């Protein structure tokens, strides 16, 4: 650009200089240097007012700076016909000179002023020229007249600037509107701050503030303009746009007509104050008062307030109902008027002292009830003070302490029976000690049973595999086949015995799923009837609305069959057997003293017979292993111990009710599950099949390993063998082909089976793993249940069971360890800051990612932008109701889980089901976290 200026103006006889916005000179032509007596080095890169200084408040300085300011602000050229501006000559003398200057803006691509090109001419000689006869020439007079006008304009501009500054800095908002269309002419900063810093000047009100349409302000302006009458309003609500949202503000304002010289209305002047803070403060005071009254009405205690003279001015419903008097009879009375006459003088003296001294009041008094009875209360009152410490009123409560008084009176009587109570407590401790010893004995037997079962099942597995392989090598008519079949049958009985030992010891690996016991009983009904025989009349009763429970279905069927067979034997094959299933609640009183039983909701399975019954000493031993009342050879004595172990391992409880000669009722309580019922899994069908895959077999017992390898070879599989986890891992690391890892659970060595599986999957992502064991310990079973996603084949197993399980695992495939899931995102929308912060802190401590919103609009913006996993919302919000927010949120995210948290118990939330629930305030953290977890887990809410 400077090159272009040189080409155009370099030799122009008129002086030109180019300045930046900050008045830095970056170019000048030869004429400018000649007129100012400066060189290029004297001025380039320097500020004009530094090179050519003038007094800061002088007329020349004001005129020059004012011209530059107008060029920058308006983007138009500005002409100074005459500007006196002193300049220092080359010899250092300062002389007054007169100039004519034109400042022209040069704009950038965006239309903003980037540079100012000044053309200035020295007219000092012309200004000082005298005409003939000592009279100035016409041109000189014209220049002097221009000087006078310039000075007047400068003074007028200063006055206008002062007016604009005062107008702009006024604490109230002010606007000048012109014409019938109400065009903005002057707007101060307070108004811009109110409406949001918009471009208003030269635009009509309807164009600049379209959101006012329908709020009545346009009509008020029209009325003031047409009638010429002013209009005033206090605390007027107005909705103004703030970005994407609408803000509610409250304003005091006056609209006055502006008249011209002819008296006609030319415009409207609007002045007022933003009183939103005051209005919100008033609303907060009202809300605080109402909140106190609501809280006081919901409290179980008497609540009252009194004036500074000690007279009641408000009572809650509890106190009114207690006294049986209308509120108007109590308001204005002394608080002590409702006391028993014997207590009034003492309490009134203490109350008067509190009123005089301003100290808290506290007395134990008897208050007369509406039926004439007196009850002891602790009456307390505290003074409420203003900022200066003056008492405004008193707030009091009456707390019923009748029970405490009675307890104090009973202490002497209780002391007299102390010895008897100590003896009773000793008996209770003795019973607890016996229970603990019995539990420890059962635990020890269980540990022994588990250890025996492990070795026993390994022996049975060797026998099973060897016999099955031998059978496959013999013809159908071979003489040895019946003996081998008998051996297999014996192995089956031995496996049942081992399973019963594990069940009693609570060591069996359960595979629980959510089931409905009513459906299970329906499916097993024919088995039960077949087992008890035709001489037993079987009645089944299933309660309506039966809850689900999470248990191992096979073990439930086995337990039910055991109980039914025992009942059959007790009735000698003839009688009435009732099987009942229903919902049950075990409270604190029932569960007290029962080890490992928590109060709560349970599903009850009861089996009741009309048999001979049992004596108390028999009931005490019925769950002991190998104990039986049956004849020799008719039972192992493990049936009831197996039922006991299964129930305890499932987190349940079993109870026997029996009398000799009056039958027996055995009730099993299994914990309720809130999850939906699992679909039934169809049994495997079709012929036994093998495959050509390669299986890595890991087993520390050599006989078991060789037998299992033989079964696998016989099914067509290639088999790699390892006697412990360390050697197996070496095979995995070698890169050999492995399609499935088949490993025993309990093995010696540095690695256990679970660690082997994890390391193998790290090397071979997706590698299928099948565990086998006769005793699982804790590596893949926790809390008595198989870990999620674990496949287990219990020993001893048949070749058919092995074949089917391997095909099942291979078809299912392995799944490599997934990366940790990101924290679930919960959006909390609550207008009360303290409640919102408490909710957010609790959720964050529980591991959730939490964002917050204090209004519905802000919450909707987050739902659109951040897609939270769940919305926790209060019903009362400042800009919309929680229900409106929920409906709008569901249009954005139809499957969004919603948790309503509110103090209103009547919530029309059915429209948001099944993925919505309600928490009634006040609620605890545990209840809130439980609801959040259920909703995020996708649980269907139907209650």
From TrEMBL:
Q: Where is the PAS domain?
A: 288-358
Keywords (A to Z) from UniProt = ATP-binding, Coiled coil, Kinase, Nucleotide-binding, Phosphoprotein, Transferase, Two-component regulatory system
Q: Start and end of every Response regulatory domain?
A: 694-810, 825-936
Where would one find coiled-coil regions in this protein? 415-442
Q: Name one GO molecular function term.
A: phosphorelay sensor kinase activity
Identify the NCBIfam families for this entry.
sensory_box (TIGR00229)
- Which residues belong to any copy of the PAC domain? 361-413
What is the protein name given in its UniProt record?
histidine kinase
Q: Which residues carry this modification: 4-aspartylphosphate?
A: 744, 874
What EC number(s) does the entry state? 2.7.13.3
Q: Which reaction does it catalyse?
A: ATP + protein L-histidine = ADP + protein N-phospho-L-histidine
Q: Does the keyword Phosphoprotein apply?
A: yes
The Histidine kinase domain, residue ranges: 451-674
